[in-house]
Amino acid sequence: MARQTSYFVQAFNTGRGGNLKADPPIACKTENGALRTSERLALSKIGVVAFSSTGDPEMGDYDDEPTVFFRQGNLSSAIRLFVLDYFRTRAMPAAAPDARPQV
After folding, report:
1. How far apart, in Å, are the Cα atoms of 93 and each of 60, 73, 87, 97?
2. What is the DSSP letter of 29?
3. How does pLDDT run across 3-42, given as a tens digit for each residue?
4. 10 with 41: CB under 8 angstroms?
5. What is the rounded distance in angstroms from the CA atom of residue 8 to the CA atom of residue 26?
6. How confident is the model at residue 1 (pLDDT cuts 50, 70, 90)?
7. So where are the chain's domains?
8. How far, in Å, CA of 41 to CA of 22, rounded?
9. DSSP characters for 36-69?
């Protein structure tokens, strides 16, 4: 199958002990949709990041480095690693075309 670009928004709240707690990732149809969702969530969340990744969803083969196009809030470089890990291990296998929430 052809490679396609997927867009995701990841928001964070403060968890126990002041650690960051990730909300479930939100899949969006377009970069513009992800940007609008990010801007809306940034008003109420401690941090928000929106990113895209290109790959083959049937094979589960995605680029190693997602492209971050929105970042706001109290986010450190550790968030980047968290997003990469979460995206690779949880978000993509569960993101079948008819199972993804669309924005």
Report:
1. 7, 28, 9, 11
2. S
3. 899 999 999 988 888 778 889 999 999 999 999 999 999 9
4. no
5. 5
6. low
7. 4-94
8. 13
9. HHHHHHTTTSSEEEEEEEEEETTTTEE-SS-EEE
